[in-house]
C-alpha cells in the first residue's frame, strides 16, 4: 500500500519557502506525495477576519484535493507547523 499523501500548512505568518527542506526530507523517507499550502504573509495578516480565514481554508482545501487526486488516495496526513523543525504530531485527516 502506498504511503498517504502529506499536506503541510505553514503556521502563522509563515510561507511555503521555509518548508522546502522539510518536504524533501519527508519525501526521501517514504516517497509520499507532499504538498505545501501556498499561504502568504498577506493571507495570515487578514486571518483576523472570517474572510481571511476563508481564504486560508480555501487554499488548504484546494491543496488537499490536488494531492488526493495525484496520489489516488482518500485521506492525507496533515499538520500545521508553527516553524520548520518545530515539535508536532501529524494526524490523519479524512476527506
Give structural notes.
The chain has one domain. 40% of the residues lie in helices and 20% in strands. It has three helices and four strands; from the N terminus they run E-H-E-H-H-E-E. Strands 2-1-3-4 form a four-stranded mixed beta sheet, with helices on both faces. Residues 87-95 have low confidence and may be disordered.
Q: How many β strands by DSSP?
A: 4
Number of helices: 3
Sheet with most strands: strand arrangement:
2-1-3-4
User: What string, H for helix and E for strand, traces the elements in order?
Assistant: EHEHHEE
Properties at a glance:
95 residues; alpha/beta; 4-stranded mixed beta sheet; 3 helices; globular; disordered C terminus
Blueprint (SSEs and pairs):
Layout: E1 6-10, H1 20-30, E2 34-36, H2 41-45, H3 50-71, E3 75-81, E4 91-94
Parallel strand pairs: 1-2, 1-3
Antiparallel strand pairs: 3-4
Structure summarized in a few sentences:
The chain has helices spanning 20-30, 41-45, 50-71, and strands spanning 6-10, 34-36, 75-81, 91-94. It is built from 3 helices and 4 strands; from the N terminus they run βαβααββ.
Amino acid at each position: 500500500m502506498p504511503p498517504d499523501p502529506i499536506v503541510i500548512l505553514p503556521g502563522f505568518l509563515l510561507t511555503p519557502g521555509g518548508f522546502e527542506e522539510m518536504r524533501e526530507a519527508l519525501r526521501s523517507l517514504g516517497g509520499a506525495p507532499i504538498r505545501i499550502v501556498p499561504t502568504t504573509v498577506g493571507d495570515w495578516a487578514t486571518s483576523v477576519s472570517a474572510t481571511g480565514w476563508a481564504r486560508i481554508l480555501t487554499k488548504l482545501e484546494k491543496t488537499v484535493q490536488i494531492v488526493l487526486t495525484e496520489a489516488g488516495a482518500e485521506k492525507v496526513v496533515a499538520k500545521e507547523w508553527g516553524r520548520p523543525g518545530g515539535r508536532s504530531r501529524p494526524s490523519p485527516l479524512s476527506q
